[in-house]
Each structure stands twice: as C-alpha cells, then as structure tokens.
Amino acid sequence: MSARMVLLGPPGAGKGTQAERICAALNIPAISTGDIFRSNVAGGTELGLKAKEYMDKGEYVPDSVTNAMVADRISQPDCVEGFLLDGYPRTEAQVHELDRMLEERGLGLDAVVEITADSDVVVERLLNRAQEQGRADDTEPVIRRRLEVYAEQTEPLAAMYRERDLLLQVDGIGEINDVTERIMSVLRDALNAH
Ligand code: AMP
After folding, report:
1. Are 5 and 12 spatial neighbours (Cβ–Cβ below 8 Å)?
2. What are 96-138's pLDDT values in tens digits?
3. pLDDT higher than threshold 80 for residue 161
4. Above pLDDT 70, what percent of the chain?
5. Can you tell me which atom of ligand 1 is nearest the CA of 57?
6. Sequence-ordered alpha helix ranges (H) in 56-91
7. d(CA 113, CA 111)
8. Measured from the CB, is residue 60 less than 6 Å from ligand 1?
9. Domains delineated in the chain
10. Which of 94, 125, 131, 154 is 20 to 30 A removed from 107 (C-alpha atoms)?
11. Nearest CA to ligand 1 atom 14
12. Is 150:166 a contact under the CB 8 Å cutoff?
C-alpha cells in the first residue's frame, strides 16, 4: 500500500504535530518545507538566505526555490513507499508542479488531508507558540499576513483536490490525540479503498 499524501491547513492548525504522528503510524517520512527552510536559515546556506527574506515577512518563498527543493527531497530513497508533504503545495502552480514531479516518476497522490480550524483559534495558538518556541515569523503582524496569504493562495487548493476525490477534511479543534484519531480513521478508509 503506497501512501503519498499532502497535508493542508492554515498556520497554527497543528499540521506539524499531526504530520509526525501520521508518519510514525504509517512508517513514512514527513516532509515539511517550512522545517527544511528553517534548518537552511539556521545553517546559513544559500537556500536559507534566499528563503529568509520571504519567511520573515510571512510571504511565500518563490516557486523556483521551493519546487526544486521538494523534487530533490521526494527523490530520496526513504520516500519510495510514500511520504506526507506538510506545507507543500501551497499555490495552484505548486499543485501542477507536484503533479508533474509525480507523473514523471509514474506515481500519483493517494490522499489530501485538510485540517480545519477557525482563525481566532489559530491566532491564539500561534501567539502561544511564539512564546514557547520564539519562531521568527510568529509575531502578530506576520501571523496575520501568513493567514491572509493562506486564505488567498492555499485555501483554494482544497477545492481542487475535492474535485479529484482526494480531499479528506478533519476538524483540527480539540485534544491532539483526538485529532490524530480522526485523521487516522479517515486516512485508513481512504488508503484501503485505493
Ligand atoms: P510553515 O512552517 O509551513 O508554516 O512555513 C513557514 C514559512 O516557510 C512560510 O510562511 C513560507 O514563507 C515558507 N514556506 C513553507 N512552505 C512553502 C511553500 N510550499 N511555498 C512557499 N513558501 C513556503
């Protein structure tokens, strides 16, 4: 059973936490483009320098940088049985680019999970995370910009994947364990049906 999946949801919906849990259960890697960018920023690489100016403003890093990074990551040997992309694709152009990357390898997506949460809840969660982790882009004006960019550019992707019958929507409000159970339950049904 292959499990090539995408995780959608606004900043603060709990994607990173849930991605780790889903991937541990299915024994596949979680690929977070945000984490890859952050580790490059921390390491002072050329990629990190390019990404940082966009991340600090809450804007998306250009596709030319992001797409190549994802293509390289999904070509690694640990991705053969599947992967969960957390934070990619985020734009319609990235959806098409991912399609192309997978087609080129004779592969396709098995499921897209959207974690839903309303904006009051996510702003509060992100402000808490700012205090706990001190992430550079968790200040209130940047959080608001990230939510705006998500609403404009990424929310429409859910409808695209719904049309393809790939979309699984899960309520992201509640205990972390309960949300994981909701996701695993819909995912198992979807993956078994494939
Ligand atoms: P995240 O950790 O997923 O919230 O991502 C943090 C930041 O990394 C985003 O606000 C963007 O600046 C950048 N980023 C992550 N993934 C992407 C992507 N697929 N396309 C463009 N920028 C991205």
Report:
1. no
2. 999 999 999 999 999 999 999 998 899 999 999 888 988 888 8
3. yes
4. 99
5. 12
6. 63-74
7. 6
8. yes
9. 3-193 (3.40.50.300)
10. 154
11. 34
12. no
Please report the pLDDT score of residue 164 as a whole number.
Answer: 97
Counting ligand 1 atoms within 8 A of each CB, the residue from 8, 17, 35, 37 with the most, and so the one to mutate, is 37
Instruction: Look up the pTM and report it.
Output: 0.95
Tell the residue number behind the tokens 């700012």, with chain if given: 130
Q: State how far Cα 57 lies from the chain centre.
A: 19
Question: Which residues are catalytically annotated?
Answer: 15, 90, 129, 135, 146
Alpha carbon distance 5, 26 (integer Å): 11
SS3 percent helix, strand, coil of the chain, rounded to 5, is 60, 15, 25
In the numeric block, which tokens belong to residue 147? Answer: 């939510």
- CA 53 from centre of chain: 20
What atom in ligand 1 is closest to the CA of residue 55?
12
Half-sphere exposure of 193 (CA within 13 A, CB side): 10
Nearest CA to ligand 1 atom 11: 60
